[in-house]
Amino acid sequence: MAAVPYDVVNREEAAALAAGNPQSFLHVGRPDIDLPADTDPYDARVYAQGRAALDAFLADGTLVRDGEPALYLYRLVMDGRQQVGIVGCVHVDDYEHDLIRKHEKTRKDKEDDRTRHVLTLSAHAEPVFLAYRPVAAVDALVAAATSAAPLYDFTAPDGVRHSLWKVAPADALVRAFAAVPLSYVADGHHRSASAWRAGKERRAANPQHTGDEEYNWFLAVLFPSDQLHILPYNRLVKDLNGLTPEQFRAKLGGLGRVERTTDPVPPVAGSFCVYLPGGWWRVTIDPATIDARDPIGSLDVSLLQERVLTPLLGVATRAPTSGSTSWEASGARRARAPGGQRRDGRRLLDAPHDDGPAARRVRRRRDHAPKSTWFEPKLRSGLLVHEM
What we know:
388 residues; eight-stranded mixed β-sheet; 27% helix; 11 helices; globular
């Protein structure tokens, strides 16, 4: 039943994962896999197919409606590291009033797609991944609850273990969580924006709106930030903006120290790694030129954007969040994958973290909104659904 999120696989990958498994939640999250391959992904039939799959899962007992209000605890274990999140619903007004903080831009076409998906299903099929600063009282309640046997416990094909506990009644956990002033979108900017838009649309269409309706809430998993592992989101630039690799390296030298390396992982803040034809180079920006008092401008991703991508490579895009960054700059012969068109008309390909040259994996990626962080493990879809 549980499946990978809709946006980490393309249609062909989703279809392969769901093949022979009529209960895969990909039939809800990626319903285009059950239509002809040439179907427009935004065709009304796609959304209707998703609703039909959800209705079928409810009708045959694959999904069961909860008979009482509850919270859930969701533990993921990957490579020996674990994180435990609280599963519940958060309010669209908190999103609008920035009590749920964002750090990435979204793309209108992706927002439109997920908003139609939510409204057609009348449900939030996949949770948003939120982070919050840890609170000792919350940690203690979570630890006590997870000491019991889980409701569900399985290991996915990728080796990640997923466990789920039900907390009912949840009054004590709700009271303890009141000490959390803010949460932050770690993964799911398009889903949260779409949930907010769907809620506003339902409000506008309901003259008897009270504020208590389910469309005012959307599904989320909230993790304490000290349990999360933030990975970089690499950049693959299609060309060197008219420069030769040697000229580009010389310009990088104006930023600080440039040296060969076999390790693509930046060792310290204020550094990044570049793959050019022939191997990796590490660039360490002169610390005297970094204003440590600027919490945004001093981030590695901001330094990369403002000192390299925009002035040297002519790629004008905004990437305002943290995470060490390694990236590839290459000639067009090495950049075969389609990428997101940026405002300046040039192309910047986003690739999740990678231990080697980013081009090895970027070939299978689709267009992304500008990103600068990557979180793993990914939440499984289909464990819990929120009906509007």
